């Protein structure tokens, strides 16, 4: 790789005012550049106080110097970190000095890309670095750190090794059919293939659940006018986010409020009441409500009477996506002297509450929690990316095809090809099989200096 021939550098801390800044250098000239700037030879893995001067000997800053000798470093190369004062000027002066001494500006994600190319991280672990940086909740950060430690990759490799063992036996039958003619007849290899496929399906399911933690879950509140949608938004958010009045049609636009539920970020969206109207402003509000329903991960359908639960469900039926999760909320139980409760139906879960008093709100939160998958233990889910899920899906398809061919005890060569394709799909997750285009796509999304 060209990391053997050039040295890269970047400011690794966020821009703007701050107490400390870090300029990171990686490559074979890192030590030489550090010695020229600091006027001393840094010791390996020892924090040293140093004065940093430019090529003309003018003092730029005073701070700390760290040297990590490759391959025992983040990138696998010689790495130097210059810790100076923060701000807009000093870090840039230090970086300019480093560049003049022979380094070049690092591309986004290039430090982690070199770590991958030098075998310090696999591709899934490299992606976990940016996932950790971009975590939007405590759970997302926990999952990202687990992936960075290799838990997700280890599970992929366990599947890959099991599949490789099956491939060895199948290829052996193809190459030497007289050696083991009863391999498929006794069903043992089919059982192992079925077990591998089931393990893959469980991993795929947990990966899909983990996607919820990558982005905020969008919870959209819908209903007829004046059923208490805005009151529920205010109760959920704990603030007077939306105007609440007895006059129907008060909410005419979409109102959003971000909140956290057990560490999962949720975007709660209040919408205009859906009804027939000739008012152009209200009609636009209804149109925006229907658009939000299309973008929702979870829909809360609000009614203010027992009769409305069924009637409103029928009214909204043409716009409800059967694949989207729906919770029906019976609001205003305080007017009926009714009790908060939760019940299930064929169509959806139902929660009876009062947005005005808050009675029943914990039941709604529990229902949202279950619908969002928060009842799953953190260690059972993976903060997977779309490409990981796509690869697992493709691997599952190829395993299913291989199982079908082998069950018929015919076309074993086609089964072997399907097993190969499945194996390659798993290899693409960890980067054992990759293309330059894929690496460029992944690492371009990193920040400079990482």
How helix-rich are the residues, as a percent range?
A: 40-55%
Tell me the distance between the termini: 18 Å
Arithmetic mean pLDDT: 86
How many individual domains? 3
Strand order, largest beta sheet: 8-9-7-10-11-13-12
Spans with pLDDT under 50 lasting ≥5 residues? none
What is the second-level CATH architecture of the largest domain?
Answer: 3-Layer(aba) Sandwich
Summarize the helix and strand pattern as letters: EEHEEEHEHHHHHEHEEHEHEEEHHHH
At the first level of CATH, the class of the largest domain is Alpha Beta
Instruction: Please state the overall shape, judged from the principal axes of the Cα atoms.
Output: flat
- Main β-sheet, in a few words? 7 strands, mixed
Number of helices: 14
Q: What is the CATH H-level superfamily of the largest domain? A: P-loop containing nucleotide triphosphate hydrolases
Outline of the structure:
The chain has 450 residues and is an alpha/beta fold. The protein is 44% helix and 17% strand.
Question: Please, could you describe this protein's structure?
Answer:
- The chain is α/β, with parallel strands linked by helices.
- The chain folds into 3 domains: 2-122, 2-Layer Sandwich (Gyrase A, domain 2), CATH 3.30.1360.120; 135-211 and 382-431, tRNA modification GTPase MnmE domain 2 (Four Helix Bundle (Hemerythrin (Met), subunit A), Up-down Bundle); 217-372, P-loop containing nucleotide triphosphate hydrolases (Rossmann fold, 3-Layer(aba) Sandwich), CATH 3.40.50.
- Helix content is 44%, strand content 17%.
- The chain has a 7-stranded mixed β-sheet, with helices on both faces.
- The longest helix is centred in the middle third of the chain and has 25 residues, at 151-175.
- It is flat, with a radius of gyration of 29 Å.
